[in-house]
Each structure stands twice: as structure tokens, then as C-alpha cells.
Design brief:
Blueprint lengths: L3 E8 L4 E8 L11 E6 L10 H10 L3 E4 L15 H7 L2 H16 L8 E7 L1 H9 L10 E6 L18 H7 L9 H13 L7 E5 L11 H11 L3 E5 L13 H12 L2
Parallel strand pairs: 3-4, 3-5, 5-6, 6-7, 7-8
Antiparallel strand pairs: 1-2, 2-4
Helix pairs in contact: 1-8
Length: 264
């Protein structure tokens, strides 16, 4: 029997969203790892961007779950009615996704006791992974975040996607999310959140490609400096090729980090 997928629509007080648990082969328990991964995607995208990440986990014997951010139509057609709700509570989806993953592991009689929780995401999802590190549901867990395509952009004016060159693309992509999540709301909030992060005493690994024009030159270093100044344990890597629009390509870099960090 190979990797198994369990699917579910998850609900909490604020949102409804879809998730897939990616489970390791139960016939090779000798390969099981005790790290669990919880991954999500960036603005206007879907959980498919993280499928390769979860597959690498499952191939190594580690359970993982990927989920759609609420209000993102490539994942599901559930609406987000209030941007304030999204700003304040979107990170709660990581806790719901982990609960679903734990249930899926038990349901399939996979005998793994989690020792390390890996929260990960791309771009907007990476920011939410950082915010999720402070959730009280995770207080007693050994946890860390892997953030792909996240930095403090050194672009002086508008967000790159709001430039005239990208305007047609943005006009299309803004229709892929709930109206409450329009880029005019999301982009300024993301910028503010990155600058005002108060995360402390957490472990974070940053992965951003040198060719990621959204983060841009110096963006990774600026975020790394800010997080370190708050007392966090930060590591980073800058692969030569990992463009912002290809987050699935981060799978090999995530796998390399896990091999180094946890002796996979």
C-alpha cells in the first residue's frame, strides 16, 4: 500500500475550508518519522501548491496535511464575509488542520507519536504560519515554521503585483478570492504585519529564491534581521532558482532542511 490521502471540509467559528491529509505507507512502519507537517498556500492560490511538500514528508514516513485558505476559490467556493475575521483568525486554520491530521493518523492505525510540529506556508501562507506559532493550541508542542517566498520587500512604492506591468494579472487573480479578500485589503495588511511582527523565541527557517522578484533583493535578509532581533532562532536558504510563482519547487529545499535538521 502506498501513500494514502484523506479528505475533509473543516469548519470553525469563522471559516469553512478544505484539507487533504497525506499519510505515509502503513506497510513501511520502519520508515515512520515523528515530525508532522501542516502546510498552506499564498494569495489567490490553493493547497495544490503544497502537495509536493506533503508528498516529500509522506515519502519520508512523516504525516502531513495541506489546506486551502478560506475564501480562495481555487480551493473551494466558501466565502469569507469579513476581512477583519480573516486578519484576526485565519491562523486558527492551522490548528484545525492539525486536528484533522491527528484524526487521520489514528483512523488509519498509523502508530506515530508526534515529537515536532512543522508549520509551513508560501507567501501569505508563510506569514500565517508565523502567526500560528503563537496559538495557544500549540503551546505544549515542539514547533517551528518553514516559510517559503516571504520577506520584507525593498520595493519603494506599490506592491509589485499592483504595478502597471502586472495589472492585467492582478485583475484576473483578484476574482479568485472572496470580495472581502481583495488585494486592496490584503496587500497593505501583509506589509504591515511583516513590519510589526512580535514573534519571540520561536524557530523559523526561511526559504526564498534569488530569482523571487516579489520578495526581491534584500527582502529575505530584512525579515531575517527583524526576526533575529526579537530573539527568534532563524535559519535561511536562498536557492538560485525558486521563482515566487512556483512554490511547489520548494519541496526539494524543504526536504533538504528536514534531512539536516531531523536526520531524515
Amino acid at each position: 500500500m502506498a501513500i494514502k490521502i484523506e479528505k475533509s471540509t473543516l469548519k470553525n467559528k469563522f471559516f469553512s475550508f478544505d484539507a487533504l491529509a497525506i499519510l505515509p505507507d502503513v506497510e513501511t512502519p520502519e520508515n515512520f518519522k515523528s515530525q508532522f507537517g501542516v502546510f498552506t498556500h499564498g494569495f489567490t492560490a490553493s493547497k495544490t501548491d503544497c502537495l509536493s511538500w506533503a508528498q516529500r514528508f509522506a515519502d519520508a514516513g512523516a504525516p502531513a496535511v495541506i489546506f486551502d485558505l478560506p475564501g480562495h476559490y481555487l480551493g473551494s467556493f466558501e466565502e469569507v464575509e469579513s476581512f477583519d475575521d480573516f486578519k484576526e483568525h485565519a491562523q486558527l486554520c492551522f490548528a484545525d488542520a492539525l486536528s484533522f491530521l491527528n484524526e487521520s493518523v489514528r483512523k488509519n492505525n498509523i502508530e506515530i507519536e508526534m515529537t515536532d510540529l512543522i508549520l509551513g506556508g508560501h507567501s501569505l501562507g508563510a506569514l500565517l504560519a508565523l502567526k500560528a506559532l503563537d496559538l495557544e493550541q500549540f503551546d505544549d508542542l515542539n514547533k517551528m515554521a518553514i516559510c517559503v517566498g516571504l520577506g520584507i520587500s525593498q520595493h519603494k512604492d506599490t506592491h509589485l503585483f499592483e504595478s502597471s506591468f502586472y495589472q492585467k494579472t492582478l485583475d484576473l487573480r483578484r476574482q479568485l478570492v472572496s470580495p472581502a479578500l481583495d488585494s486592496s485589503n490584503v496587500f497593505p495588511w501583509i506589509k504591515e504585519e511583516k513590519l510589526d511582527l512580535d514573534l519571540m523565541n520561536q524557530k523559523v527557517h526561511l526559504i526564498t529564491g534569488l530569482d523571487d522578484i516579489v520578495v526581491g533583493a534584500g527582502g529575505l535578509e530584512a525579515l531575517e534581521f527583524n526576526l533575529k532581533s526579537l530573539g527568534n532562532d532563524i535559519t535561511s536558504s536562498e536557492p538560485k532558482k525558486l521563482p515566487h510563482h512556483e512554490p511547489s519547487s520548494a519541496a526539494s529545499h524543504i526536504n533538504a532542511f528536514m534531512r539536516k535538521e531531523f536526520s531524515w
